[in-house]
Amino acid sequence: MDKKKYYITTAIAYTSGKPHIGNTYEIVLADAIARYKRQKGYDVYFQTGTDEHGEKIELKAKEKGVTPKEFVDNVASEIKRIWDVMNTSYDKFVRTTDPNHERIVQKIFDKMYENGDIYKGEYKGLYCTPCESFWTESQLVDGKCPDCGREVEEKKEEAYFFRLSKYQDKLVNYIENHPDFIQPESRKNEMLNNFIKPGLQDLCVSRTSFDWGVQVDIDPKHVVYVWLDALTNYITNIGYDPDGSSDEFKKWWPADLHVIGKDIVRFHTIYWPCFLWSLGLELPKKVFGHPWLLTNNDKIGKSRGNAIYADDLVGLFGVDAVRYYVLHEIPYANDGNLTYELLIERTNTDLANTLGNLVNRTISMANKYFDGVVTNKNVNENVDNELINMINALDKKVEDKMDKLEIGFALDEIFDVLRRSNKYIDETTPWSLAKESDKKDRLETVLYNLLESIRVCAYHLRPFLTKTSDEIFKQLNIKDDSNFFNKNNTYQDMKPEVLFARIDKEKKLKEIEESQK
Ligand code: ME8
Question: Which of 184, 347, 430, 448 has its CA 20 to 30 A from that of 364?
Answer without folding.
Answer: 347
